[in-house]
Amino acid sequence: MGWHLPYRPLDTALKFQVSVQTESTFNGDNSGANIRYGLQLRPAPKQGWGDYCLEVQQTDTRYHTGKINPADDVILRLAAPWKKLELLLDKNGNPYNIRNHVEIWQLWNEDVRIAVQATYKGQWVDEMVRKTDDLILHPDQLLKTILTKDQVLANYFNDVYKRVFDFRTQHSAPATSMQHVMGENFVPLQEVWQYRKTPAGGHVDAEGFLPETADMTSVKSVKEWLQRKTGTVITEQLEVKRAANYEISQQTGWYNAFNTISIMRLGNVWQKRTTIQLSPEKMNSNGR
What we know:
The chain is α+β, with helices and mostly antiparallel strands. It has a single domain (2-280), classed as Roll (Lipovitellin-phosvitin complex, beta-sheet shell regions). The chain contains six helices and eleven strands. A hairpin with a 2-residue loop joins β1 and β2 (29-44). α1 packs parallel to α3. The termini are far apart. The mean pLDDT is 86.
């Protein structure tokens, strides 16, 4: 027995500032990136009976890099067509369809694909472009990919309203979810969540790790990627840990801030650290 957090549709616009920092170490060689942008969520006008639509838009992207991994850069560029999304939500606040799919396809076909291929060359780039081409053709698969690979949206729409919390401990039962590592690679993390009520609304802490009994198919793909880069067989065990905390607004019932950190390590060969911060947009001196 347990309880769910109550869900109610968003009835006001929310504006956030997002910071995503990645730091990678590969055989002692460091690379990383710091991406900052605005994120707006607001109810979108209905165009059909019973449809609740949420507009999700990235704004004012600022992209600072040290020595960035080209694969990460290409992934960011390939995601440009869906910086503005119109998402239809179900009764639990989970997106189930993309209403502006036609506009996304046009932006990809007429602009982004051409720009990516003009910037990077090589078989790996052509393959990533081909996969993106196939992906955007299928809105169901595109939505699923966005909600897993875009780690900001993956954290925002993380089924918090469907999670069952124990009345006594306020813990959720351990649950496994697929977490994006990089490229096409995902790993299954087992997470436990804990809730506590606060004067401003609610606070949720989450901790996760890659179990030793995890599906080795996904882990194998990460090792194979590193073996291709190093030319040697990787025997070390993949370690993945993640911690996150989420603030829920009493006024809206939606997240108004969160912080996450994930660390992925393969022996002394490779490590990637990703830190994500979502915070309310700061007003200027005029209150805007």
